Amino acid sequence: xxxxxxxxxxxxxxxxxxxxxxxxxxxxxxxxxxxxxxxxxxxxxxxxxxxxxxxxxxxxxxxxxxxxxxxxxxxxxxxxxxxxxxxxxxxxxxxxxxxxxxxxxx
Length: 106
Hints:
This protein is mainly alpha-helical and 106 residues long. It is built from three helices and no strands. It has helices at residues 3-23, 34-63, 69-97. Helix 1 (3-23) runs antiparallel to helix 2 (34-63). The chain is elongated. The N and C termini lie far apart (34 Å).
């Protein structure tokens, strides 16, 4: 494994851990939904970072010949599907708070 690959895997592990750590600790207090909104939007940002890191690792593996084109494409779809599921969850959460427009830019 070369240095770039090692760096990408480290970034993927860090992004995944940051997402899991964040969603594992929802806000304990809320002032009219603002804390939950902030928490949900941060989760969405972390989800995108983790999905992008997975895609970067898959691209690196494909470029090095470790995985075939179909496996590369499958990893890209997997990363995007995972992020889109998280985005749907965030939209559901924000809609429940009456703040659905807050996440429209993400």
